[in-house]
Every structure is written in C-alpha cells, then in structure tokens.
Design a protein that fits this description.
The chain has 123 residues and is mainly α. It contains seven helices and no strands.
Length: 123
Amino acid sequence: MIRKNEMMMGFFKFAKSADCNHEAQRWFNQGLNQIHDFWDYESARSFQESIRSDRQCAMCYWGLYKALSFFHGNNQGYGAVALAKAMELRSKATERERLYIEATASATGTGFENGVRLWRELV
C-alpha cells in the first residue's frame, strides 16, 4: 500500500546501513528520496534528524553534505563539515557506503580523477 507522502515523491530505499540504527535509517531514506526530487531544504532537515537519531552513522553525514551542496542551498559552508565527519566515520560503514563517501570527498578536492574512478567502481 502506498502511503500519502510517497505519492508526492519517488520511493527509493537504500540498503540497510551497517552502522545506522533503525530510526536513523528511516530518516536517511526519507532524505534520500527528497534529495532525488530536488527538495534540498527538506532533505537536509531529514538528514539532520537521522544524525540526531544516530551520531555514528557515516552515511547520514554524507547525505547531509549532498543536501547542503546543492547550488541553491544557503548552507554550503556546513557541507564540508558534514563530509569531513562522514570521512571520519567511514570505517564503520559497509564497503559500498565507504566508496560513496570517498568518491564524494575525492570529487570535491583536487583528486577529481580518483573520484571518477571510485564512482565507476560503484556502478
């Protein structure tokens, strides 16, 4: 059965993260769906709630970085802090999640070619 809020946006469920609790996973999935529908402000709030639910979830910080790094975001300065925290916690993440985090971090710095290589490993 489709819930009312799922009719307004796409429904994507990221595989259960090894380092996130259930509540953080639900907020993360909501934020991921919102960001794919270009609701960057709302997705940032969802990722912030996922971090409040589980401060050790690396992918929650990655999601917050993605939401804050949108062109029309007004909190882009905080994105770097979120990505740095994701990099700090990446050892607790699965291999796939670690690749997402490292590819994003590489693509933001001077190692763009390395970021492209890591993204190609994911697909």
